[in-house]
Amino acid sequence: MTAQTPEQTVSPDSRNLATVSHLSAFTVFIGLPPVIGPLLVWLLKKDDPWVEYHAKEALNFNISFMIYGLLSAVAIILLVGLILLPVVAISWFVLTIRAAIATSNGDYYRYPMTIRFVN
User: Fold this and answer.
1) Spatial distance between the Cα atoms of 102 and 95, rounded to a whole number of angstroms
2) What's the rounded Cα separation, in Å, for the pair 63 and 2?
3) According to the model, what pLDDT value does residue 10 have?
4) Closest of 10, 1, 34 to residue 106, by C-alpha
5) What whole-number distance in Å separates Cα of residue 2 and Cα of residue 59?
6) What phi, psi does 11 have (nearest 5°)?
7) Which residue in 40, 47, 38 sits closest to 65, CA to CA?
8) How would you classify residue 113: left for phi > 0, otherwise alpha for psi between -120 and 50, otherwise beta?
9) Closest Cα to residue 71, out of 102, 39, 10, 113?
């Protein structure tokens, strides 16, 4: 996470849209995959480097955590998943909120534990 320098000011619209790209993952609570929101934001605003960076970051993070969740669900057979699945879910929730807050403050945020599928 690095702060913006004065030369790198970002418009409020870009900042808000980048924040939405992180928060849009919460569409999972209405039954949509968490990758839909970040993917749409990225496809619609590829021309804005700030929004593109955050949308790709959110997309990679949500793809990674979907994989971690599936692996944890399968690991329930071994009883390890009983601990892993809640840890993955809570981590996903907390890190998504942290990313949205950092982005709205004008910082670049890089999620931990993320596989870079989209560059």
Assistant:
1) 10
2) 24
3) 86
4) 10
5) 20
6) -65, 150
7) 38
8) left
9) 113
Cα four-point dihedral sign 10, 11, 15, 18:
negative
Cα(13)–Cα(46) distance, rounded to whole angstroms? 14
| pTM attached to this predicted model | 0.87
Cα dihedral 14, 23, 95, 70 sign: negative
Secondary structure in 3-state letters for the chain: CECCCHHHCCCHHHHHHHHHHHHHHHHHHHCCCCCHHHHHHHHHCCCCHHHHHHHHHHHHHHHHHHHHHHHHHHHHHHCCHHHHHHHHHHHHHHHHHHHHHHHHCCCECCCCCCCCCCC
Determine the residue type at 4: Q
Give phi and psi for 106, each to the nearest 5.
90, 15
pLDDT in tens, 46-76: 999 999 999 999 999 999 999 999 999 999 9
Rounded to whole angstroms, how far apart are CA atoms 40 and 78?
37
Using CA atoms, how far apart are residues 58 and 91, in angstroms rounded to an integer? 14
